[in-house]
Amino acid sequence: MPAPSFPARTYVLTYVGLLALTLSTVLVGFLNLGWGSMFLAVAFATAKASLIAMVFMHALVEKTLVRLVIAGALIWFLILVTLTMGDYITRGWLPFPGK
């Protein structure tokens, strides 16, 4: 079975896009946007991870089963992040004597 392949132009454009997103992440790091800086940094990181998965890992041209596995991994990751953040946010709700 032949491996899927993209033209060289796609790889070059993906590389340029990753460089642009990295530069954007660095430049946003110098700005004081409050919590917006973290939001933008995570958004840029998500965009970079998506580009890498779609082009370099060939997720765009894979079969349905591989896409289902990727979707399941993303859903599992979101469940774990949600539960972790729920625990972290509710830590200060109960007052403890002596603190």
Keywords:
single chain; 99 residues; mainly alpha; 3 helices; 72% helix; 0% strand
3D architecture notes:
With 99 residues, the chain is mainly alpha-helical. Helix content is 72%, strand content 0%. Helix 1 (8-30) runs antiparallel to helix 2 (35-56). The longest helix is centred in the last third of the chain and has 26 residues, at 64-89.
What ranges have pLDDT less than 50 throughout 5 or more consecutive residues?
none
Determine Rg (CA atoms, Å).
19 Å
Give the proportion of residues in helices. over 70%
Structural class: mainly alpha
Topology, number of strands: 0
Q: Strand-and-helix sequence, N→C?
A: HHH
Q: How would you describe the shape? A: flat
Strand % is: under 5%
Largest sheet: none
Short synopsis of the structure:
It contains 3 helices and no strands. It is mostly helical.
Draw up the topology in text:
Layout: H1 8-30, H2 35-56, H3 64-89
Helix pairs in contact: 1-2
